């Protein structure tokens, strides 16, 4: 860690690299308000123009994440939303899956995890704006794309068209959802600020005739407004020729680091999502369902802001493709989208979940329902920032760095023009060319240099003491001393005003600010040996703190303090005005920064556990109880193990360990997939991906015993690819449980003023 107060370090020499030249045009792009917007109950005016969203006339660049309320326990909605807020999220998006609420015609269910109104009330309580995705077709790896079976089986009508019989059903669905959301629009003081209609319409399903498709989207919006969804913004999928009605819906784009739905079991080619470009269209999204005659955009990019809603915050496994997105993959793709000009960072998914029980069928996507993939019956983990279990993934911290930067500097970034380097990589397999782009605010002159030195499944060449030349109309400027190990990515400010001070150049990545104190971080690795350098106009410097990248990953900001946790899976949340640390450590230290002064150390410790030192002692054991052989062979198809968990596994029920917040069962096994059974019922499952499986025991009321069923790698779910399975991570072959253990998690109150 380097702490620098009022110090200026001059940049390196004047050597410029022609291949890293970016020409900056000072011409301003004409702006034009789009015909949508509205005022909320507090008088805030929400608008959008061809560049970005605006609130009360000021630009903002939000972070929107997907979390499915009906795929999580309602008693934990609040805590999970607070985790998202701690991660720098300021909008939550959620599907309303039709089949979750009307599985049989006329039998409506908005209870338990399906309680939409209850979820919206929690969003209101936690001050989390909502983007409601009301379909009626949703996909989301849900059975029939979210359509109830009885809708799909009715051959007398044509779904996803203006067929009157279909529209009558959609109207009833929208009206029921509207009843649940009544009073929850932002104009009424509720959290809903946006609505998405349909999903991938015209790209995956829907009529091939463009005018027919556009007419249907207009009809859906009319029905939504009649159902009470009067909100500032409406969006629609924009990629792959999907139908977007200019002026009625805003197009949203996406990108995933891999394609678990791809119709093969080979490694994907190098992805273009790790190369900077404008208005990126990921050709792999929905490649399993898309029509071959679709390409390009149906909207005019010149009049629409560049918004994303489906940047893969992870990847959901399928039976034949067990892709694993590294945290570095997730971070680098987001940096590339932002550097390419995106003015909404929208992630799908950001929080995993678990499918609810169906009354008449299972609710997952499967080949049996006519889709190209088989997914777990229960698990929708998505290997994303917050896992199905509720645990914090490493990618959470990777993205939080970007989100903290946007909280402080998003207004300036949203109004920028984007400029690309003169020399671009020849292809995503070009692992030598420096990948950079710049965004410059024409009003203030503030600039953001985006850098990415990561390519999924490839080893990028490290860059030591590299330079980028910014060529303006009347001068040129060098950003030098860039030391970028393989995998490094981030945002470097230049000509940047911090209050009355102006930073001309630096080689450090921007994180956030506390008052007049500005936080940066430096990449880690063999190529990152150079010290951070800062050049300030007239030598008048701000107070600067330079963190290591791992410290920045663990940074949380609440009020006028920045907290650095000790462990990457720690999470700080604020609930009812109090700060809590969620951690697996019994004792840990927080580093606390304030607007002035040196950082201080704050020790926090669990208390109230069974053991005298605050620990919760929980043990688990297992025994093989039976196996079923493969047909005609001696090898097992699956084995069943009884797992026994000590009575200490029920702290919440016994109220003997108030500090123990949660318990996870970790299973280390060899097999194609595994399942948890309780009282003869399937309650959770997992497709092997190379990670150890973590099961949230709270979800099942802390059972003292459960059954683990493990299927052999010799017995995968049948597929058209010779029953082969693709894995990114190494996996163990066979059919065996090697070990189980229970991992306690603590929630510790943090006394913010303690020394």
Summarize the structure.
The protein has 755 residues and is α+β, with helices and mostly antiparallel strands. The chain is built from ten helices and 44 strands.
Structure overview:
- With 755 residues, this protein is of the alpha+beta class.
- The strands form 11 sheets. An 8-stranded parallel β-barrel has the order 7-8-9-10-11-12-13-15. The protein has a 5-stranded antiparallel sheet with strand order 32-33-44-38-41.
- A hairpin with a 4-residue loop joins strand 21 and strand 22.
- Helix 5 runs parallel beside helix 6 (210-226) and helix 7 runs parallel beside helix 8 (394-414).
- The longest helix has 21 residues, at 394-414.
- The radius of gyration is 26 Å and the shape is globular.
